[in-house]
């Protein structure tokens, strides 16, 4: 059995809890594949898991699922993009050499050079072939943000001519949602901070609103779909005003509505969107695994544009 590098989360706390160590390389079971990870990401979920800084009712649930006093799996991380290195004898979907991307669910484990997991969808993860026209780092942004946004955008049943509002349009899920809503034919209004207005416009937004200077919307406008892509724990006068502009038949969704469904079929759809040029991943920064602490510090500030990737190898 060989060794691999991994960022170990020794306890819940600040980014400084991470330590870079050599640990045992996993070996796939008969129904598993072994993925050589080329890139992972620092997501909002990773920040919550590492810090355990969440509302009490969520903290209790999270500790039960992930570990009472420290993460049960000291290698955290939800997102991966890499190459199938080997497969168990009972696997069928993938072969060695396939470029793949996906999420690992509550088993975590992507802040490392290798991860073994089942090839079938479950709460322990989902895998799909990676879009061929983007990098491994870019794939990490659409794996997490794309899957999260698409799950909720589907609820909106967006049609050509609909008006859609994306609150938090510059984040990992928000950048995907703007492009997806536009692809579906909506007139898109994007809400974000001043420094991200031009970037969001470049993604196709028809109208942009700076939440730091505006706390109301033009009178008379009603939206057919509103997506809160920052979550219910971040509030503002403008967010409340946005809710009040929902049309009587419109749909409102938040990325906090229910658990993220780990669905490889959605990942396949996202791959098609990217390969056809309908969606372009947005990456703010890339860090090497050795700088995982600094990457967590940056994401925790809450001002990233799109995704923040970690290059493993």
Commentary on this structure:
- The protein has 2 domains: 3-130 and 282-311, Alpha-Beta Complex (Quinone Oxidoreductase, Chain A, domain 1); 144-254, NAD(P)-binding Rossmann-like Domain (Rossmann fold, 3-Layer(aba) Sandwich).
- The strands form 3 sheets. Strands 3, 4, 5, 6, 7, 13 and 14 form a 7-stranded mixed beta sheet that branches. A 5-stranded parallel beta sheet has the order 10-9-8-11-12, with helices on both faces.
- Helix 5 links the parallel strand 9 (187-192) and strand 10.
- By secondary structure, the chain is α/β, with parallel strands linked by helices.
- The mean pLDDT is 93.
- The protein is built from 8 helices and 14 strands.
Structure characteristics:
Quinone Oxidoreductase, Chain A, domain 1; five-stranded parallel beta sheet; alpha/beta; 313 residues; single chain; 14 strands; Rossmann fold
Shape: globular
State the secondary-structure class: alpha/beta
Indicate the percent of residues in helices: 25-40%
CATH architecture of the largest domain: Alpha-Beta Complex
